[in-house]
Specification:
Elements: E1 11-53, E2 56-69, E3 73-86, E4 90-132, E5 144-157, E6 160-172, E7 177-189, E8 194-200
Parallel strand pairs: 1-2, 2-3, 3-4, 4-5, 5-6, 6-7, 7-8
């Protein structure tokens, strides 16, 4: 189906159900759902559990609950409260996460805001502004971001484990364990953080 005709095609699942992938306008899931195939839609909103057996392309991806995406995610805006697993890459204009995630590939977004409640793990992360912060330390469990390489313009990290952090302005906050920081203009490190090596480039 052509994308021009998507405005007349919506998908709603309330309760427990399955659906085929394809081109849609609005996709709303409230309950438990399985999507078989690649999903291409304007707005994808999930309250509950949704597994996509393929990739996801959307303007808005809003999740309150859990989701497993077998392929990659490409979206303008991603908002997650809960947990998501992505078997490929995740590309977005802006990404906000309050919860946990596992991304097997790369995470790339203009603006990244992560509040880890549980384990957040990704191989590489890149963006213009990157912020990792814990809003409440009362949560019982492992609250860390684990990433090999983080690259951005303005980077502010808390409770992050990374091999390399590279940016223009870099602030390393409490709970961080960083192997190497490379910065151009500004660098700050909290007393509660560990940085093995730091270089101005």
């Amino acid at each position: 189906m052509e994308k021009a005709n998507r405005k007349n095609r919506n998908l709603k699942i309330f309760g427990d159900g399955t659906a085929s992938g394809g081109v849609y306008n609005n996709v709303v899931i409230r309950g438990v759902a399985d999507i078989d195939g690649v999903l291409d839609c304007a707005n994808f909103k999930v309250t509950g559990v949704c597994n996509i057996h393929g990739g996801l392309q959307a303007k808005l991806f809003k999740l309150v609950g859990t989701s497993d995406v077998d392929g990659s995610i490409s979206a303008d805006e991603v908002k997650i409260v809960g947990e998501v697993t992505v078997r490929g890459d995740c590309n977005a204009e802006s990404l906000a996460v309050m919860g946990g995630f596992t991304i097997d590939g790369l995470l790339n977004a203009g603006k990244i805001d992560i509040s880890p409640y549980g384990l957040c793990e990704v191989k590489e992360m890149g963006g213009e502004t990157i912020q990792v912060r814990t809003r409440f330390r009362m949560f019982v469990g492992y609250q860390h971001l684990i990433c090999e390489t983080i690259e951005g313009d303005d980077i502010k990290l808390e409770y992050t484990k990374a091999r390399v952090v590279r940016g223009n302005k870099v602030s390393i906050g409490p709970g961080c364990e960083i192997g190497l920081v490379e910065y151009k203009e500004y660098f700050a490190q909290a007393k509660e953080a560990t940085v093995n090596d730091c270089k101005k480039i």
